[in-house]
Amino acid sequence: MKIISFYNEEWEKGYLKEKLSDFDILFPAGTVQDNPDFRDEFAEILSVFVKDKVDARSMDMMPKLKLIATRSTGFDHIDLSEAKKRGIIVSNVPTYGENTVAEMAFALLLTLSRRVYDGYKQVVEETNFSPKGLTGFDLKGRTLGVVGTGHIGEYAIRIGKGFGMDVVAFDVHHNDALAGEIGFRYAEFDELLGVSDVITLHVPYNPHTHHMIHKGNIEKIKKGAVLINTSRGAVVETAALIEGLEKGILYGAGLDVLEEEGHMIDHLSLLRDEHPNPISLQTVLQNQYLIDHPRVIITPHNAFNTTEALERILDTTIQNIEGFKEGKPMNIVEAS
Question: Domains in the chain, start-ordered, CATH in brackets?
Fold first, then answer.
């Protein structure tokens, strides 16, 4: 059984090769998009990461494809409807980074609350060791609003409680036992926006979560709140985020993800297009505004990126592939 595994890091290639020694594996470097002329007539399994867009054209590259094993929790980069139409199973890694992503959310928050980047920049650029103008704020006693109480959201709540924060949460499915154990309460989304000093987003991206925060509800956010997004860029409408910053509704934002972040990687190709998508082009320009904003911290979709989490991702992917080979596919995702 042949596997095509697109990769970026040499150690990942070696790890998979050793653990899947019974398989015939080919490792094209980079992403699916980096290899537009790639084709394999015999591959039955495709292993990709979150930045690989897998659409009908990608599937055409491998006519015998039977399994797409994405090395990520999110799967919005895969055309699930097209895969289903072709009888291709799609599996993901549902629980690799509960603590990992939650820790990153608080790294972004602390960078803002304690002016870490501002202080670092001042020391490096000005050799100025004065704390004047670098006053931050405590997390203790403030209200943390956690949107999504799944695996990552639970860890975010536990960390928030560790800082002495009051926690409110929103989720379409309430875990009342967890709320009683940790000590938080569920609230309606608009209430959460209005009472939270910090809002952290931990939801998957789907039609229901698209632009959860938008121009229609940005003014419902408590004045001076901080927004943290380590989920998916399109959960927040970029224009609304900018409005919140310009009007002083938001003190700042910590973002590991952006709308149209794929175009940020290669924005020149968007500009070179004969008829560029005007919405995508506008969002790229808005993202540049966020990058330049003094109270916005942006990281390059890096919340997953720890040694431990990457090994958990690969181990689960290996299990998904071996389960499929044995006729027992696991961690299957389907179009809703």
Answer: 2-96+307-325 (3.40.50.720), 98-298 (3.40.50.720)
Q: Catalytic one among 142, 202, 301, 312?
A: 301
- Using only C-alpha atoms, what is the Rg of the chain? 21
Contacts of 54 (CB under 8 A, 6+ apart): 32, 46, 48, 68, 70, 77, 78, 79, 83
- Distance between CA atoms of 54 and 77, rounded to whole angstroms? 6
For 121-160, how does the pLDDT look when each residue is reduced to its tens digit (9 = 90+)? 999 999 999 999 999 999 999 999 999 999 999 999 999 9
- pTM, to two decimals: 0.88
Task: Return the amino acid letter for 115.
Answer: R
Tell me if 198 sits within 8 A of 222, measured CB to CB: no
Annotated catalytic residue 237: no
301 given a catalytic annotation = yes
**Which listed residue (77, 142, 202, 232) is catalytic?**
232
Q: Is 86 labeled as catalytic in the residue annotation?
A: no
